[in-house]
Write a structure and sequence with these properties.
With 190 residues, the protein is mainly α. It contains 8 helices and no strands.
């Protein structure tokens, strides 16, 4: 364990000195970790790779700001999530969007997602959500952002954030039940 920490610190030191080999090794070491994060925000692997590469570029540019007193993975995760948000904002103008401020808020127990275990792969279902729903769902549920923070990050209203989250949950539930049928309903109630 100490060796891994020492090697990581040596790689970070090399990255701070703009050493291409250190950057490549750091990228390769955290590729799987970063790709898993980006896949949650992307509609497919190609989009996730763009987010990942943007995120690593930002990490290498800002590596001098990394404080070794804190876990590197947490620092990198924040950069990758921000890269996903930046990607969303960059391409948001090309997506068909509408305001949900005037729509009634959907909040009831029927939007609860069925019980999902660690053996269940939610990624394909998550990627079926629209970009807006997926982004709000991930920021709220996975990253722990509050609605006012999401609204500021994505340049949407708090009401739109809440509505997108409720609709994302409802859509996830419907997709989950359609793919897993009655067994999911039985497990939920049994």
């Amino acid at each position: 364990m100490k060796t891994n920490t020492l090697n990581l610190q040596l790689l970070i030191k090399g990255c701070r000195q703009h050493n291409r080999q250190s950057q490549r090794k750091l990228y390769e070491h955290f590729y799987g970790y970063g790709m898993n994060i980006c896949l949650c925000y992307a509609k497919d692997k190609i989009e996730a790779e763009e987010m990942l590469n943007d995120g690593f570029l930002k990490a290498f540019v800002n590596i001098s700001k990394y404080d070794p007193a804190y876990p590197f993975k947490a620092w990198l995760r924040k950069i990758l999530v921000n890269a996903a948000v930046d990607y969303y904002r960059k391409y948001q103008k090309y997506r068909l969007t509408f305001s949900t401020d005037k729509l009634p808020e959907i909040v009831d127990d029927s939007t609860m997602i069925p019980q999902i275990g660690p053996q269940d792969n939610m990624l394909p279902i998550l990627q079926e959500l629209t970009h807006s729903y997926r982004m709000v769902f991930n920021l709220y549920v996975i990253e722990g952002y509050k609605h006012h923070e999401i609204a500021e990050l994505l340049d949407i209203s708090v009401g739109t954030s809440k509505s997108n989250l409720a609709r994302a949950k409802a859509k996830l539930k419907a997709l989950w039940l359609s793919k897993h049928g009655e067994a999911a309903k039985i497990n939920k109630h049994g």
